[in-house]
Amino acid sequence: MKNKYKIFGIDDEPSVLLIIQHYFKSKFDVKVFNKPADALANMQDGDLPDIIICDLNMPEISGAEFVGLVRSSGFFSSIPLIVLSATDSSEKKIDILNLGADDFMVKPFNPKELEARINSILRRTGKFAIESINE
């Protein structure tokens, strides 16, 4: 039996977390958090995801701040990040991608498209190649 890739979903909207959790649970090991600080605490405890899906507009720590924290960390900097946002501003997308996000999707989003983007990033980062060798 092959191991599932681990996704961390971070969003302050319970409905988005529910979509991520239910849509991806059969294909991935999914953990959801309504606060970026909780996800960071898990990561600092050694629970590392293969990819992170993070909302942009959250209280306390924004998605942009979270991307910056992950990218500036020596331990977490290589974890792929997809940012979700209701903001459709090209300027905001460019800013987030320049901060270090691997992709940006506008809400509402199609879970199938999000899955395709996740798989594309995992292929690019070599995660699928590792799976093929271990099968």
Instruction: Kindly provide the radius of gyration, computed on alpha-carbon positions and rounded to a whole number of angstroms.
Output: 14 Å
Helix content: 40-55%
Poorly predicted segments: 129-135
Give me the count of strands: 5
Domain Response regulatory: 6-122
Modified residues (4-aspartylphosphate): 55
GO biological process, one term: regulation of DNA-templated transcription
InterPro entries: CheY-like_superfamily, Sig_transdc_resp-reg_receiver, WalR-like
Question: How would you characterize this protein structure?
Answer:
By secondary structure, this protein is of the alpha/beta class. The protein has a single domain (about 5-135), classed as Rossmann fold. The protein is about 45% helix and about 20% strand. The chain has six helices and five strands. Strands 2-1-3-4-5 form a five-stranded parallel β-sheet, with helices on both faces. The longest helix is centred in the last third of the chain and has 14 residues, at about 110-125. It is globular.
